[in-house]
Amino acid sequence: MRKTSLTVSIPSPCQQSWENMTPAAGGRFCGSCQKTVVDFSGLTDSQIHELLSDTSQRYCGRFRKSQLDRQIQPEQQAASLLPAAVLGALLAAGLPATAAAAGDHAAQMADTATTRTITGKVTVENGQLMPGVSLVVKGTNKGAVTDVNGYYRLTIPVLPADQKVTVVVDCIGFKRTEMAIAAEQTVDVVLKDADAQLSGEVVVVGGVRRNNTWQRFKYKWRKFWHR
Fold first, then answer.
1. 9 neighbors 60 (Cβ within 8 angstroms)
2. What are the structural domain ranges in the chain?
3. How many CA atoms lie within 13 A of 191 on its CB side?
4. What is the tens place of the pLDDT at every residue in 107-162?
5. Pfam families, per this entry (predicted)?
6. Rounded Cα–Cα distance for residues 188 and 170 (Å)
């Protein structure tokens, strides 16, 4: 059955504080409404679409405002997912698009004797690894993009001991982060949400209707969070 785009809305946001809810698998349990609120805030559009494309099931969820009330497209062929995410990050950071086409994760600098490589991962606050995140050496067009698993490898210049290299981290929907890097070899980044978050009963418009919906939803959710 052909997949279509969908739109997610929360008409009546929950008034309960997320921090006061009890941690539960995939989200938190709200004692007020006696339901588990599933945390979608760290998922990509394609992941949200896969989980919510069946509109016959009702549940509560937590989303960033930027994820709501807009079209969420279905997953394309596997080969096109990462380049699409990478392209968006490259455009936001001003990196040359040819780097994405070649699949490079680290810019090559002219004099390798004056450069070194750092590695790490990029996550959101709930620990979800983030693909397609742009990391750029400030003031240059040298950078990298996290791979499908949220890891990066970035070449940076070697500076005198009393100086640090500034790396700018960009991802749509999250606050821009600047890191001052000295002698570190491994640098992990945690993205902060750029917009407010809403929790409540989810209304989905669009998607595909299938049988055995609840079992399929639980299976897919476990697949995302227990890789």
1. no
2. 6-75+195-225, 82-191
3. 30
4. 443 455 688 899 999 998 888 898 888 899 998 888 999 998 999 999 998 888 78
5. CarbopepD_reg_2
6. 14
